[in-house]
Amino acid sequence: MKKLSLILAASCLFLLVGCSTSLDTYKDTEPHLKLEEFFNGELVAYGMVQDYSGEVIQRFRADLIGTWDGNEGVLDETFYYADGSEQKRIWYLTKTGPDLYEGRASDVEGVAEGKVAGNVLNWTYVLNIELDGEPFAVKLDDWLYLVDEDNMINRTQMYKFGINVGEITLYIGKK
């Protein structure tokens, strides 16, 4: 019986690992994503935040303005939430290699690290948010999918202590 339990546990682990998304899956997809091209100029985003159960807990629109000087970029974001609140975030972006990027913002702990493969960027970072008036740090696994030169879909999983606590989904388009 112990042997059967061990085999079942190992099988489940291999199944879970096999189902995980690898950035390399997208290496040959087109068009190739370059943040300095897509996030340059005025953009608009529409999105929602879901809790761990999938319930939509917030909807928003965001105005984004991106500027680049060589390998250094600034992405100025203003969020307008359905509850009437607003939020500002300014990303300071650096292209550190052919398909590597770093990002910094006042509510991000340390440095966001991102890698592009084909038309996809995967960022990972810790974001400080406010929950019930208290600071709350969540780890984000952020996937940006370039649909075409003017449109992008962004899906983000949020984790606390390794447990999925929510998801953000948004559309970003050039104005």
Short description:
This is Lipoprotein. By secondary structure, this protein is mainly β. It is 13% helix and 63% strand.
What do these coordinates show?
This protein has a single domain, classed as Lipocalin, CATH 2.40.128.20. A hairpin with a 2-residue loop joins β9 and β10 (163-174). It is 13% helix and 63% strand. The longest helix is centred in the N-terminal third of the chain and has 18 residues, at 2-19. The protein has 175 residues and is mainly beta. It contains two helices and ten strands. Mean pLDDT is 90; it is low at 1-19. It has a ten-stranded antiparallel barrel. The N and C termini lie far apart (62 Å). The chain is globular, with a radius of gyration of 18 Å. The chain has helices at residues 2-19, 35-38, and strands at residues 41-51, 56-69, 72-81, 86-97, 100-104, 108-117, 120-131, 134-148, 151-160, 163-174.
Bin the strand percentage: over 45%
What's the CATH H-level superfamily name? Calycin beta-barrel core domain
CA distance, first residue to last residue: 62 Å
Indicate how many domains the architecture comprises.
1
